[in-house]
Amino acid sequence: MTEYDSEPENGKELFLFMLSMPRSSKKELISNIDSNYEKIEFLKTAYAKLVPPGFTVSIEFNPPNKLINTAESIDLCITRLHDSQTDVQQDWNLAYRSEKLTQMIKTVHCNVETLDIIKKLLTDAHCVYFENGEMATIGFARSGMGKYFYKIFDKELTPDQIKQFNDGRNYIFYKSNIVLEFEGGAVGPQSFPD
Questions:
Q1: d(CA 181, CA 149)
Q2: What does pTM read for this prediction?
Q3: Which of 16, 31, 56, 154 sits at a 20 to 30 Å CA gap from 37?
Q4: Which residues are CB-contacts of 102 (< 8 A; sequence separation ≥ 6)?
Q5: Is there a contact between 180 and 150 (Cβ–Cβ < 8 Å)?
Q6: Per-residue pLDDT reduced to its tens digit, 161-191
Q7: Residue 25: which residues within 8 A CB-CB, separation 6 or more?
Q8: Nearest 5°: phi and psi at 127?
């Protein structure tokens, strides 16, 4: 009898959930930026054109998971600075073509076709997440409950920025205008594990 068979039902669910979590590494993060930099840069430029001025939009496409029986979904956060007020709309695990998602994206003058474009741009760059802003934050992959990101600046980093974004724990200055980032989750490593 295996350990799985001896677990109660809720233990089996947790076991399957943990097995279904994606795995990645710093090595894969670097390999992707080296081999797909042009596509990542194109994603950054195209996404910036899709988001109206005054908004920051974070979007992550979650693939379906047959092991734990979850459908494809989207995590979305829309932030707007308006008259010194910050308005935030956010929700997680939104069904891809749901009414709630459709209503949220109307805020930034987008529709389902816009989501399809963003999804394709992310897929072409082998990435899953994007957030516009002073620097683009592009999610490469989840690893357990943590996430690997690229921070892409518009210009080469200054010596002060390199110092700020090169702590060796959560940020590693990679080159020119690129910083690698690891963000820990609720459990597991809280800094670059590799």
A1: 5
A2: 0.85
A3: 56
A4: 111, 112
A5: yes
A6: 999 999 999 999 999 999 999 998 777 788 8
A7: 143, 148, 194
A8: -130, 170
Q: Report the length, in residues, of the chain.
A: 194
User: Is the Cβ–Cβ distance between 173 and 165 less than 8 Å?
Assistant: yes
Residue-wise DSSP of 176-190: TTEEEEEE--SSS-S
Kindly report, residue by residue over 2-55, the tens digit of the pLDDT.
Answer: 665 666 666 555 444 555 455 678 999 999 999 999 999 999 999 999 999 999
The answer to whether the beta carbons of residues 115 and 121 sit under 8 Å apart is no
Q: How far is CA 119 from CA 123, 129, 152, in A?
A: 6, 9, 19
Tokens found for residue 16: 């399957």
Contact 121, 46 (CB under 8 A): yes
Residue with tokens 């947790």: 14
Expressed in percent and rounded to 5, the helix, strand and coil fractions of the chain are: 35, 30, 35
**Spatial distance between the Cα atoms of 108 and 126, rounded to a whole number of angstroms:** 25
Q: What's the DSSP call for residue 79?
A: E
